[in-house]
Amino acid sequence: MLYGAAMSEFPRYAIYYAPDADSALSRFGAKILGYDPFTGNDVLVPGDLIMQAPDWPAVIKDPRKYGFHATLKAPFSLAAEATEADLIAAFDDFARMPRAIPEISPVVRIISGFTAVVPDAPSAELSTLAQACVEGFEVFRAPMTPNDRARRKPENLTPRQVEQLDRFGYPYVRDDFRFHMTLTGRLAPERSAAVLAMLQQRFATLDLTSLRIDRIGLFHQTSATSRFQVLRHAPLTAT
Prior knowledge:
Largest sheet: 4 strands, antiparallel
Strand content: 15-25%
Shape: globular
CATH class: Alpha Beta
Radius of gyration: 18 Å
Number of helices: 9
Number of domains: 1
Number of strands: 11
CATH architecture: Alpha-Beta Complex
CATH superfamily: Cyclic phosphodiesterase
């Protein structure tokens, strides 16, 4: 049977892109989301942002628990025969494997109702990296439970996305992959333009015209009520 009967088990793990902890981009994301996944600590959201959007804690409630990141392999529970030590060793091996390092021009846009940092244009190298993560760590993923699958709302997915959900535990892979570093939860249409303009203005102060996706993070979540935190962070090896 493809799906187990139990609820998702913890801890859960994920392979994310996260910028270096000391980078301006990482600090930007931590301040917007009010959380630093490298330390596991809350971060003070800028006071002027709260003045502009007094309900900001509600706006960031969902993305805050994941930390500032872009998904390469979506959260998963460990397969029965796998251990955390095995996963860490595979993560280190993956980072050491020479590969092309994607480079993007980052911009802030609305994607599926969320505000996020995204590439200004598609990147084949970035898609290749993401799919390498999806497939390379698949051996460590426990089968989806029925509840896991139902939460993905397969009735709202395309046939191809349903097939990918059943194959990889996540529908947005291969041609459906979209690199994005989420900054807000889903916004009401009448709110999107103002929030987008505010975040674009703040992002512009970084003067970040180019971003190398040159490192990956192994994140983990210890319980359903805890936030994701960086377990391992490693630079990728360029060809």
